[in-house]
Design brief:
By secondary structure, the protein is an alpha/beta fold. Strands 1-2-3-5-6-7-8-10 form an 8-stranded parallel β-barrel, surrounded by 8 helices. Helix 11 packs across helix 12.
Amino acid sequence: MSQKLQLSVVDQSPMREGSSAGVALRETIQLAQAVERLGYQRYWVAEHHNLPNFAGTAPEVMIGQIAAHTQRIRVGSGGVMLPHYSALKVAETFRILDSLYPDRIDLGIGRAPGSDQVAAAALAYPSMPKDVRHFPQQVRDVINYLGDTLPDDHPFNEVAAAPNESATAPRVWLLGSRYESAFMAARMGLPFAYAHFFGMGATDGPQIVESYRQNFEPSEYLPEPLVNVGVQVLCADTEEDARRIASSRNLGRLRSVTGRANGIPSPEVSASYKYLANEWQFIQQYQRNCVDGAPEQVKAGLEKVAEGYQTTDLSVVTICYHYEDRVRSYELVAEACGLEPL
């Protein structure tokens, strides 16, 4: 793809083994300030529950903090797991954020629980978890609350989401990694953010995104398809350094999927870990969805992803042990891809 890449950030607020959530959350704010200076266009924060590797449980709180400590970068959720919540409450929360930081707020909405099933039940208790079949209606309700366009036959059409004096509104994105989410975004005429970094069926990713484009129905909200793709990236001055630093992310991922997560391990711990054959096979498969290496390797890898998905709009996810290595990775990617710093 000959067009210049447009790069953003998705931050899961990774927590180091032996460190604390407070440190991870403060680093999220610091990283947002750093990538704004480097020329990245959006900064989205994730929602996770009962997952020891990640500290971010409330993206709406972090969005306010990040926006307050930055000047122009768009800030949003990657995303709010809507089935846990009331559509009205989510709309009002993001209207407040938009009132404070006009034309800078993105509302990324996801359907996945962002947690295990026990934590999902705890989030709904003493009620039962919402049936995911209600998710499309919840998304429509959020959009209608934000736009003051609830239909007359809606049971709560007399309820207005406040505050409503802002001249702008949060931009709503639908997040996903499956055909169902792509089709829903297309039918609703919403932007679609595909989570290539999930590593779940990523070989089908380009087809999933293409199905979104083929089924897209223009809306008042969006006249033509808009696609963002989130990619796991680790860039260092040399390929050897990148592989060493990325080993922390890889072992952290393995521990997470096998129920042994305790924060992101150090490169030293990762280097000494003795992988079983099936564990190593998992890591090799996982790394195929990552773009790791020296700057020119990463640039080429990102361009290949962009070509595969036919979009220049990519979000970079970078997880490693040392905060300094994370900042350096974003610096090298920005320089290699020609971002224009402030």
